[in-house]
Fold this sequence. Notes:
Blueprint: E1 2-7, H1 13-25, H2 28-47, E2 60-68, H3 75-92, E3 104-113, E4 124-130, H4 144-154
Parallel strand pairs: 2-3
Antiparallel strand pairs: 1-4, 2-4
Helix pairs in contact: 1-2, 1-3, 2-3
Amino acid sequence: xxxxxxxxxxxxxxxxxxxxxxxxxxxxxxxxxxxxxxxxxxxxxxxxxxxxxxxxxxxxxxxxxxxxxxxxxxxxxxxxxxxxxxxxxxxxxxxxxxxxxxxxxxxxxxxxxxxxxxxxxxxxxxxxxxxxxxxxxxxxxxxxxxxxxxxxxxx
Length: 155
């Protein structure tokens, strides 16, 4: 398991989309924001020493604990933009081998405001990375993969 605190607030999806459409649509603003945040997350991962012993061996389960100053930004906006930057930064740091289906099994988002947090941290996001135990649903046992095979045979 690895835990990382990323001080924020991170840009939301709306900020990333606005940056991508700026500069005449050349995406220079988006590239600058992405580079800045992925480098910051890379440095935080190195400082927290979660880059060693290297990428996780199996697909991971991630929990994102988003802490916002207030409730002005929609949770889906906060998570969609910030999660992209965090995943890319963790790949750059060598914590994750990739951010696709092979490397990230699932994630869970939770939200709270600064006033609701015990311990007084400001805005940001706590990221917890775990390697879950294998489950029936992801195996050849009776689960989703078996149901998909049956459905394929039937039709």
